[in-house]
Predict the structure.
Amino acid sequence: MSIDNETRDAILAAIPNLRAFGISLTGNVDRADDLVQETILRALKNIDSFEPGTNMPAWLFTILRNLFRSEYRKRKREVEDATGMYAESLKSQPEQATRLEFEELRTALDKLPDDQREAVILVGASGFSYEEAAAICGCAVGTIKSRVNRARNRLAELMSIEDLDDLGPDRQTRAVLTADRD
């Protein structure tokens, strides 16, 4: 695998911010370092899917966030079962929570006004900055911020989310409901 110097430098420059983000997600320096390392490995492995000229740090942050979500989701579903009694009591495997969460989010998003849904998807789910989302929508940055805020509040209401502790970081809704951008 060979990458050009510019790409290598962009990846290396993002590491301190990736590490800080990883620490904020995990609350643990060692786990954050592992996440950053895995992020870099995945990025290098999939470097062909990166579109030159786009935002390298955003791409890396997305990889890190997805890795964290996968890890969290896996740990969240693990049950202490040293004796194996719990596993023996299961008659069938439970539905995948991811599919259910996606359906719940999709149903709630469908209930939002079009302008709010568009704004919260661009900023929360797609990772665009407020400025980028405003340019895409052809409106002022303040308008996008207002739409995103109203959408987040309405989604929280529709999904009966009273506190961020009601969400696991693995949920798509966490990004939609909490993505604070400039």
Q: What stands out?
A: The CA atoms of residues 11 and 56 lie 7 Å apart. The mean pLDDT is 80. The longest helix spans residues 5-26.
